[in-house]
């Protein structure tokens, strides 16, 4: 019996080359994702069984991601516990991300769905979902 597909990698084009200390780098470090490769204009981070690439270059158009336009709205990452989600949320100001739907946090996704919805200044949204 063949298994269904799993995510191999996700590549996100960003308006500026990724670098140490930018919002993505700080968030991924707080999540425990190691940067394993770097080249001019890009970086690769380990993400569970797959990996995430952040890349910028001459083909990238625009200075801000518009998550409400057709295309990818957000990336959802599963964390093992609610406490891990909470620890990251506490660090958001230092990480350069804002909490979306703060009036309904952490239940913005529903009464049985513990998650945090984050957005950075470039318009990217990341959802952190507690597995437990």
Give the topology, please:
Blueprint: E1 9-13, H1 23-30, E2 35-39, E3 42-47, E4 50-55, E5 75-79, H2 82-95, E6 97-100, E7 115-120, E8 125-130
Parallel strand pairs: 1-4, 5-8
Antiparallel strand pairs: 2-3, 3-4, 6-7, 7-8
Helix pairs in contact: 1-2
Defining key terms:
17% helix, Glyoxalase, Glyas_Bleomycin-R_OHBP_Dase, 4-stranded mixed β-sheet, globular, 2,3-Dihydroxybiphenyl 1,2-Dioxygenase, domain 1, 132 residues, alpha/beta, VOC_core
Mean pLDDT: 95
| Parts with pLDDT < 50 across at least 5 consecutive residues | none
**Total DSSP E strands:** 8
Order of helices and strands, N to C?
Answer: EHEEEEHEEE
Strand order of the largest sheet: 1-4-3-2
Please report which band the strand proportion falls in: under 5%, 5-15%, 15-25%, 25-35%, 35-45% or over 45%. 25-35%
CATH architecture designation: Roll
Integer tally of domains: 1
Largest sheet, strands/sense/barrel: 4 strands, mixed
Q: Name the overall outline.
A: globular
Question: What top-tier CATH class fits best?
Answer: Alpha Beta
What is the number of helical segments per DSSP (H or I, 4+ residues)? 2
Tell me the structural class: alpha/beta
Helix content: 10-25%
The CATH homologous superfamily is named 2,3-Dihydroxybiphenyl 1,2-Dioxygenase, domain 1
Euclidean distance between termini CA atoms: 29 Å
The whole-angstrom Rg is 15 Å
Could you describe the 3D structure shown?
With about 130 residues, the chain is an alpha/beta fold. The protein has one domain: 2,3-Dihydroxybiphenyl 1,2-Dioxygenase, domain 1, CATH 3.10.180.10. It contains two helices and eight strands; from the N terminus they run E-H-E-E-E-E-H-E-E-E. The strands form two sheets. A four-stranded mixed sheet has the order 1-4-3-2, with helices on one face. The chain has a four-stranded mixed sheet with strand order 5-8-7-6. A hairpin with a 2-residue loop joins strand 2 and strand 3. It is globular and about 45 Å long. It starts with 8 loop residues before the first strand and ends with a strand. The mean pLDDT is about 95. This is Glyoxalase. It comes from Galactobacter caseinivorans. InterPro entries: Glyas_Bleomycin-R_OHBP_Dase (IPR029068), VOC_core (IPR037523).
């Amino acid at each position: 019996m063949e298994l269904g597909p799993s995510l191999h990698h996700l590549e996100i084009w960003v308006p500026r080359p990724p670098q140490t200390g930018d919002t993505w780098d700080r968030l991924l470090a707080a999540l425990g994702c190691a940067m394993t490769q770097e080249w001019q204009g890009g970086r690769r981070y380990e993400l569970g069984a797959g990996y995430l690439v952040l890349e910028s270059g001459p083909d990238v158009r625009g200075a801000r991601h518009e998550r409400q336009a057709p295309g990818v709205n957000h990336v959802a990452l599963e964390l093992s516990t609610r406490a891990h989600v909470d620890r990251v949320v506490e660090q958001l100001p230092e990480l350069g991300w804002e909490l979306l739907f703060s009036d309904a946090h952490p239940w913005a996704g529903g009464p049985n769905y513990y998650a945090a919805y984050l957005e950075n200044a470039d318009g990217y949204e990341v959802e952190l979902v507690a597995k437990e």
